[in-house]
Amino acid sequence: MLTYELIKKDDATGARAGILHTPHGDFETPLFMPVGTQASVKAVSPDELRDLGASIILGNTYHLFLRPGMELMREAGGLHKFMRWDRGILTDSGGFQVFSLGALRKITEEGVEFRSHIDGSKKFLSPEISVAMQTALGSDIVMAFDECVPYPADHSYAENSLHRTQRWAERCKKAMTRDDQSLFGIVQGGMYKDLRSESVMRLNEMELPGYAVGGLSVGEPKEMMYEVLEYTTEMMPSDKPRYLMGVGTPDCLVEGVARGIDMFDCVFPTRVARNGMAMTHTGRLVMKNSDFTHDFCVLEEGCGCYACRNGFTRSYIRHLVRAGEIFGLRLLSLHNLWFLVNFMKDMRAAITEGRFTEFRKNFWDKYEYGKKR
After folding, report:
1. From 140, 262, 265, 295, the catalytic residue
2. Which candidate, 130, 42, 48, 147, places its Cα nearest to that of 91?
3. pLDDT: is 104 or 67 the higher one?
4. Helix (H/G/I), strand (E/B), else coil: 111
5. 10 classed as catalytic
6. Active-site residue among 10, 92, 262, 295?
7. Measuring CA to CA, which residue among 253, 270, 275, 271 is closest to residue 262?
8. With contact defined as beta carbons under 8 Å apart, do 310 and 22 qualify?
9. pLDDT higher than threshold 80 for residue 372
């Protein structure tokens, strides 16, 4: 069973440093989880993930449900054995992917009927089926099946959705069968404080091992996301881990940590790497830009990723990206993942050493997300 140990809390903000105790190891928080959608973090091996410091990765229930499927995952002995990963795994419930299908799905109280994006065949996911799939995957953290409220949504829609999500969470809890897996509930409620409050209260009554904040980073302004996050985390229990789903840009990580979030995940670092973008402490580098043609510096001085510590230059990586060479995209993927995983470790050190406010200020003094160079 997963537990959370609070080590240090920042006096000026809600930032926390802790330890997540799981069946596959103890991991320091705050942390970033690379996303392995289909039992693989794109272009990166398990050994490389370990080398860059990743402690927990995320697997996608929806995609693994469609292929290779529940029976093969049972036969394989679970996701850890299947993908040769010996550290933590969190699996999402499949809810977000199903609801993003739009017209291709139909929501009922029992669950969601949808058509596979692979072959158009009819499929069905319910709280019980989602938990059964995650049981077969053998993840350390199982996410409750929920309905992700779109933005914008009126109060009535968000309220009805929230109540369904709560009923589904209770069904997920009843469906859990393994002592080595921990179920996280998901706080929903759209952008409405009263609904977020109700969601937290009702989930707290279930006494789950951890809680996630869902339904954010779905198109709302970042200031609104931070506002919702601020009052939501203040209502959440302090002795349980808090997970903000689907967020992975440095600015959102800093502000999420400042509001008491312990865990994050996002496809962002590997997705933008495949589009030729590098992440740095001052903003993004669009490697296709001609500015880098004769730039023989590494992606970022002082970076410990495979690309930077081995001296691969911006000029060389630009050449690989423009030539469509897979190695260039791998170098950028390794760099971006190293950047985010170790960015979180730097924040943890700032919290434990009592200098998080300074860290946050220094970050904003030099970071510009939209800056293209």
Report:
1. 265
2. 130
3. 67
4. coil
5. no
6. 92
7. 253
8. no
9. no
Q: Which two tokens stand for residue 366?
A: 């030099």
In the block, tokens 């990743």 appear at 54
| Among 15, 17, 84, 26, residue whose Cα is nearest residue 55 | 26
pLDDT digits (tens, 9 = 90+) for 320-359: 999 999 999 999 999 999 999 999 999 999 999 999 999 9
pLDDT at 369: 61
Active site residue 365: no
- Give residue 104's pLDDT: 74
Work out the end-to-end distance of the chain between its first and last CA atoms, rounded to an integer number of angstroms: 46
DSSP 8-state assignment for residue 8: E
Measured between alpha carbons, how far is residue 158 from residues 7, 38, 148, 213, 218 in Å? 36, 30, 9, 15, 14
Identify residue 211 by its one-letter amino acid code.
Y
Q: How is 291-318 classified by DSSP, letter by letter?
A: GGTT--SBSSTT--SHHHHTT-BHHHHH
Residues contacting 308, CB < 8 A, separation 6+: 298, 299, 300, 301, 335
Instruction: Catalogue the E-assigned strands of the chain.
Output: 3-9, 16-22, 25-29, 31-36, 56-60, 88-92, 105-107, 112-115, 122-125, 141-143, 182-187, 210-213, 242-244, 263-266, 277-280, 283-286, 368-372
Across 99-109, average pLDDT? 81
pLDDT tens profile 140-189: 999 999 998 899 999 999 999 999 999 999 999 999 999 999 999 999 99
Question: Under 8 Å CB-to-CB from 268, ≥6 apart: which residues?
Answer: 248, 249
* For helices 193-206 and 155-175, angle between their N-to-C axes, nearest 10 degrees: 10
Q: How many helices (H) and strands (E) does the chain have?
A: 15, 17
